[in-house]
Amino acid sequence: MPAAINANHLARWLEKPAHGYIVKKQTTSKEYSKLNSNVWLKNTRISSHIEGYYCAIQEQEINTRYVQQKRAKAGTTVDSLCRHCKKHKEDICHIIGSCSKLCHSMYLPFRHDQVARLIYMEILHTQDPQIQMRQPEEVYRVGPIEVWWNKKIACSPPTPFNRPDIVLWNNELKTCKIIEVGIPLDDNVGEAETAKHSKYIPLAVSLKRLYPQYFFECIPIVLGATGLITRSLTTNISAIGLNEESSTKLLHQIAEKAVCGTVKIAKSALTLIR
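^ thats the sequence. predicted structure below, dont judge the formating
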């Protein structure tokens, strides 16, 4: 009987056009990883408050101006434009991933940089698990590797994009991996992954001229702001040079950090300005 009840509830939920819209979009994504998407829900370290708020984001049940306009009584006028950029409709997807005014003030510090730091530290821990660091250093050397963090790279001829998130040099294997992080809306993950990879190809070509003995590779680490994990993401994390255990651990950590960042962005953006 419980199985029949659950199946009935699932069928009713799937019939609703708005509820579960984001999750439904995830499952139809070409690269959707059923095993890893929304894996954070199994993490006991995430509080019930964050879990509940995040599920409300996925269900588009956050009280944005767009939602207020939809639910306003007849004859009531509600401005649905974003309270920050004042250019686009303020739905929850706009707030957590598309507002130009929130990019540098919230998207980067609350979510992007937090995920990038986890990757940076996991790379260092492959050489020394005891390393502790509050803030990544621009250049850090440990064992045969050298890691650059958000370092501007001078090349000749100059390239338009010369400040990747992380550059990993291995002086023993003679490899250089340009790692770029992205956490767009779930709908844009595939496009963002392709763009991140292509963006730094000219930089890799310029560096190859300077260091012809090295093999260069561009690795995009892109996951959805509302929970989407792709199969290509697991492949790209492994390409960094981590073993299977470390890759799985890092995947779960960055998914959790992205979740918490998205919640913080939504709560902050919707309370700073009424």
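The mean pLDDT is 88.
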